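Thread amino acids onto this structure.
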């Protein structure tokens, strides 16, 4: 589990570095995005990963790793949107956005550690393609919950699904780095 924690932190450090750089370039323009728009951005990235995994020919010179990073960062943005609500104009400083990023990463990592304890790190024996499929399944669940105006009868809410997508994407990145 100690290796997993270090590997998790290394993946998140890469993702956070890109997030911070994009905040310097664009500010927090993403604050105007509604949750379905963020969900669709994640969906596009997951579909591209699946296409890369299934197609023999690649026409764009970017691999799966950059798409998994996008899934992680967009999912964290979605968790921030769930907490703060959608803004009409960018309303966070880089410092505030980074603090929120760190807060949601810490919550999500704790969830990973708890599940890893109970499941015995079963993800280590999974294929990256299976993790991609699980992310796509979570996205379809989120879309259904969004269509149901956020209401569920017995299922986890949208936040838990975004957290799972982050963790699956981190696991995929760990696999790709090994």
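Threaded sequence (178 positions):
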């Amino acid at each position: 589990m100690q290796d997993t924690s270090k590997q998790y932190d290394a993946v998140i450090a890469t993702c956070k570095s890109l997030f911070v750089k994009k905040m310097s370039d664009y500010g927090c323009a993403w604050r105007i995005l509604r949750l379905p728009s963020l969900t669709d951005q994640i969906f596009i990235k997951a579909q591209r990963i699946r296409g890369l995994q299934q197609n023999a020919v690649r026409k764009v010179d970017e691999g799966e790793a950059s798409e998994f990073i996008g899934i992680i960062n967009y999912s964290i943005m979605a968790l921030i949107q769930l907490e703060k609500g959608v803004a009409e104009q960018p309303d966070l400083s880089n410092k505030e956005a980074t603090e929120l990023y760190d807060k949601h990463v810490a919550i999500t990592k704790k969830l990973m550690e708890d599940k890893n304890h109970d499941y015995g790190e079963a993800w280590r024996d999974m294929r990256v393609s299976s993790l991609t499929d699980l992310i796509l399944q979570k996205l379809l669940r989120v879309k259904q919950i969004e269509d149901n105006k956020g209401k569920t009868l017995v299922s986890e809410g949208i936040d838990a699904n975004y957290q799972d997508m982050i963790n699956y994407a981190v696991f995929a990145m760990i696999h790709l780095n090994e």
